[in-house]
User: Which sequence fits this backbone?
């Protein structure tokens, strides 16, 4: 008899198949209380003193942006993370790349128009922050009574001390009230500030300078969510005391146990699957693996028992091909050993669609292999939306083996004129090319960009590797190790 006995796991399979196909968060999407799970490694996001949060595409930047603006979510987060300051925090979005006019958040066009008129970036953000603080302080004054961004900028031009004086007055008033209330201003989607990196870099740098200045206030705080390639751009941090931001930044990463916790969390949201999963956990003495409160912290050993029962223990007939629990996140991870939660759930969703499935399992290793292949395709396409030049950089390596010598990589790029193609694309209207390539115009600059977004890895022996999550779809071959089997 299997460890699941006569337990029917089909509700778990059905629930996995029902996961949303593309659960992207868009600007101004609401985050409901039952959607919120709490990776233990994300606790640093809630520290009001840590102003910078860094994450690649799909790691949760926009999710946390909107979660923190929901008072009910803030209370639940405060309870789960033992972070009581959040219960007395008011939050508002300072910028999130939206085209919709939702006071006090400026639209992309508001920022772009001010910048193109030659307005100092620091002045733009001071006006943005002042409007947001006034909005919170006056308990969401009507949009009609709130000055436009252009008007707020002109006010600060006419009265340069107004920003410091008004924020100081509000900060002191909050402190004297004795209520320990905090105002939190959240900035996301900075890659949408403008259509080219030069302007995005200038505006981002201006925001970080102004945000750093908020450290002198007791009750007014800011949190900036930023892409990994922007974080890697040293020019953005070329101002006094910038290390106070970068050294205390929060890395949006997901550990394997948090990914599996999310898988179980999503299963618990579907009633029939939840019933079966709880019964299975009880039989295996693995109840502690279930994130019943939404907190994604559990013993990997207990989680492994559940995963083995749901999907089998091995990625084949024996451990020679690897164990399911470790194999799946490993082969879905980028060069920084991070796997996005969306990629992980999509791999399981694809696995549930594979038939036939082994007896007494919800999914099996054959389905998971297909799921990883599908996730590779989806992840490369997803990153390609942010970094269109990735496919050009990987294409010359098709049917070559990795790890690869750096000189061989550069030779392939030079033969295919990859750097020239990127530069031509920029000149003909391409927008977000790698910053370093535009200025340095070299294969080495392109490699640095690929490493910064974790699509490539520079190994200690000097060779360059491409992780399976990108290698499989790009048709790049692999030397050694237990790879994703090639599709027959």
Assistant:
């Amino acid at each position: 008899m299997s460890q699941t006995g006569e337990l029917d796991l089909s509700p778990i399979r059905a629930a996995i198949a029902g996961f949303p196909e593309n659960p992207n968060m868009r600007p101004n999407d609401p985050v409901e209380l039952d959607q919120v799970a709490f990776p233990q490694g994300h606790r640093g996001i809630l520290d009001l003193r840590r102003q910078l949060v860094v994450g690649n595409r799909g790691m949760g930047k926009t999710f946390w942006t909107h979660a923190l603006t929901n008072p009910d979510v803030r209370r639940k987060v405060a309870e789960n993370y033992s972070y009581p300051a959040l219960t007395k925090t008011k939050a508002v979005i300072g910028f999130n790349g939206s085209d919709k006019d939702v006071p006090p958040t400026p639209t992309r066009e508001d920022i772009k128009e001010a910048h193109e008129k030659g307005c100092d970036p620091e002045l733009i953000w001071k006006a943005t922050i002042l409007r947001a603080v006034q909005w919170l302080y006056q308990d969401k004054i009507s949009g009609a009574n709130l000055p436009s961004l252009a008007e707020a900028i002109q006010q600060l031009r006419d009265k340069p001390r107004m920003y410091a004086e008004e924020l100081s007055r509000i900060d002191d008033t909050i402190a004297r009230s004795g209520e320990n209330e905090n105002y939190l201003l959240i900035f996301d989607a900075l890659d949408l500030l403008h259509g080219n990196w030069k302007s995005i870099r200038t505006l981002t740098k201006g925001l970080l300078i102004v945000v750093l200045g908020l450290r002198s206030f007791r009750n007014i705080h800011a949190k900036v969510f930023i892409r990994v390639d922007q974080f890697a751009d040293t020019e953005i941090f070329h101002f006094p005391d910038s290390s106070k931001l970068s050294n205390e930044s929060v890395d949006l990463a997901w550990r394997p146990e948090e990914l599996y916790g999310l898988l179980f969390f999503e299963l618990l949201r579907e009633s029939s699957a939840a019933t079966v999963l709880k019964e299975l956990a009880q039989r295996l003495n693995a109840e502690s693996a279930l994130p019943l409160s939404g907190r994604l912290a559990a013993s990997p050993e207990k989680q492994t028992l559940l995963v083995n029962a749901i999907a089998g223990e091995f990625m084949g007939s024996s451990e020679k091909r690897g164990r399911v629990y470790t194999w799946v996140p490993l082969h879905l991870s980028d060069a920084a050993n991070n796997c996005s939660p969306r990629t992980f759930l999509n791999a399981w969703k694809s696995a549930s669609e594979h038939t036939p499935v082994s007896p007494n399992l919800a999914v099996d290793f054959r389905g998971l292999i297909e799921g990883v292949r599908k996730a590779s395709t989806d992840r490369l396409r997803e990153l390609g939306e942010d970094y269109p030049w990735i496919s050009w950089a990987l294409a010359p390596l098709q049917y070559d083996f990795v790890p690869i010598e750096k000189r061989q990589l550069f030779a392939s790029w030079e033969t295919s004129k990859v750097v020239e193609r990127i530069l031509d694309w920029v000149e003909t209207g391409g927008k977000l090319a790698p910053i370093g390539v535009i200025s340095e115009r070299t294969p080495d600059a392109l490699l640095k960009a690929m490493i910064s977004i974790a699509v490539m890895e520079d190994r200690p022996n000097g060779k360059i590797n491409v992780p399976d999550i990108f290698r499989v779809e790009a048709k790049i071959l692999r030397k050694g190790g237990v790879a994703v089997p090639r599709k027959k």
Summary: Residues 10-18+255-384 form one domain. The first strand starts at residue 38 and ends at 39.
